[in-house]
Amino acid sequence: MQYKMEVSALEPTATGAKDHSSSASMGSSTYHPLFRKPSKRQGFLQLQRSREIEQISWQSFKWQNQMTHALVSRLGITKELKGHRGCVNCIEFNTEGSLLLSGSDDYNIILWDVYKQKRLKILSTGHRGNIFSVKFQPQSGDRVAISGAGDGHIEVRELETEDVTHICTCHEKRVKRIATVPTQPNNFYSASEDGTVMLYDMRAPHTCNSQASNFLIDLRQHAGSTVECRCITIHPSRPELIAIGVNDPFIRIYDRRMIKVNSVQYFSGGSGHLERNNYSVSHTTGSSDNLPPGCVQYLVPGHLPDRLREFHRQGRSLSTTYLTYSADGTQLLANLGGEHIYLFHMANPQYPRHYAAPSATKLHSKECDAVSNGMCKSVSANTNGISSHLTEGGDRMSVYFYPPVPPLTPRAESLKARANQAFAAEKYITGLQLYNQAAEISPNSAVLYSNRAAALMKRKWDGDIYAALRDCFTALDIDPHHVKAHFRLARCLHQLGREDEAQVCLDDFMKQHPDHISSPACTTLANDIAKAIISKQREGPDIDGDNDIPFPTPSAQEQKWRSQASDYHKYYCGHCNTLTDIKEAIFLGSDGKFIAAGSDDGNLFVWDSHTTNLIRVLPGDESIVNCVQAHPHTCLLATSGIESVVKLWAPLPQNDKTKEAPVDMEEIAQANQQRMCIDHNEVIFMQPLSPSYIEWLNHDNLPLN
Length: 705
Known about the structure:
alpha+beta; Methylamine Dehydrogenase, Chain H; Serine Threonine Protein Phosphatase 5, Tetratricopeptide repeat; five-stranded antiparallel sheet; four-stranded antiparallel sheet; 18 helices; 31 strands; TPR_rpt; WD and tetratricopeptide repeats protein 1; DCAF8; WD repeat
């Protein structure tokens, strides 16, 4: 159903910010909804001058210039490192950036010299499954490597002598990730598809038998027997914080200090992984649960919990394939398989917002109750986050004093005008990129957020309606009487299936803006909401549909943890992550100016982390790019995928004639969105099958649904 409040609903180019100042009944009380300062960034010459006069340190100068727009715009492949005979599933730089490890389906690990761009050594491992993770042991002088593979085994070996010093076979299924801690050289963690995370201390003797005694986290206790760990990462400055991604959209951050290492009894009559897994799951009881209620904080994109059953009926899987912290640990980046890439603010978490009846007298957010460990926060109410209540304008105005909103800068005004033109021409992707740039320059403009919401509602990619909802809330935070933001908020709630909230929001809209009650758009939306409410009342309980796999039932404690999950800060879209469950996403540069990730279409994607705009799409593999890792100190990348090579990327000379021809990024992003929304078996036939791709398919590397 179309509502005729579209292009005409876009604000005029001239921005006349309303002054909502009024005398406050509470004396000097004031309310400042956003009013954050736009970020100011110095150019290279300004930074160089600041360095010369010692206004900034050399560390800060390097921090801000490792990756720049000029360097990223010239990125290209400088070398292909050949030596593997199968897909390269993992790559890892050492701390200095002089060495690189790679692990492959050929069961081998190769040590590379990064600067000389040559192979130093091929290590034949004892693994009999695809190697999914390889790490340098911290503080070992780059002489020790740790590997985990599809056979469920973990090996620790000397790189010079190739001697294996430790072997662990405790995991029952594939080991997907190894995590090390720079300040704890003797410890490392492993995450496996058996749903467990194990902690290893190489100073202590370890025997793999029927009693595994190094279980740190057993997710099967609360998430069910089908849970699978896909990735793990450690906070860079607080190693007690462990982030884990599994085959659901929830990210879990555990506080190691509150968890005791546990033991799990295995079936002694058989050595097979399947027998051991079935036995250990059936003998997992509440008495062996070592996860106290306050030990974990959950994160999830706010629109996904309500869609889990819908995705399950469609046979569409969601799983976190990679997690990484920013260098300072204030942000966490998650590559969500089957969806987008999400950025979470750890220092200032956000929570989903809900529209409530106008009974309160102010706009407020329910604060989180901090717990004693200083990390985890929980919401006191049993809802999925924070409820922010929009009330009648008169009530709010009687309590709060609204300072005038600053006008748009000339640059933001120009970007907004161009974005409005793109919207009118139905070029919504272009319009969104322009609105993103304008909002970064002038972050306190309700007009920009409202217009961007309109463009998101038109593009309708996964997550766009929810992102539009967030923009409408932000616009109303800045300007509580913004007509179009309020109406679009009601539309978003309706399209998200939150009909009760939509009805309350629309009723409040008609009270505040009676001139619009008889408008066709308002009448149509009111009828649609009423029909949806009646239809929902007639529907029976949710069923699993044609999916043979039953919908998992989490424990009561798990449901409580999920209900308290915090929301994302920003999201990055355009790539496709459905065919493999090892696809990575990373920060580029020490200050995280850019985000990079591989894709099912064989391209390397680069986004501006601040505006979320896609700025580069580079061919990186003949089939799929899975891995991307950044050099720790300079503008250099390494990528790998279905091909049996590791590719090194660096800025090419400005006059290099071998640079790739420009590609249509919007067309590629649109095609990837279509890929992401269909069955992954159909995706296979949407692109040519290369020989290495066919070989990879024969290795059964597809994620399980």
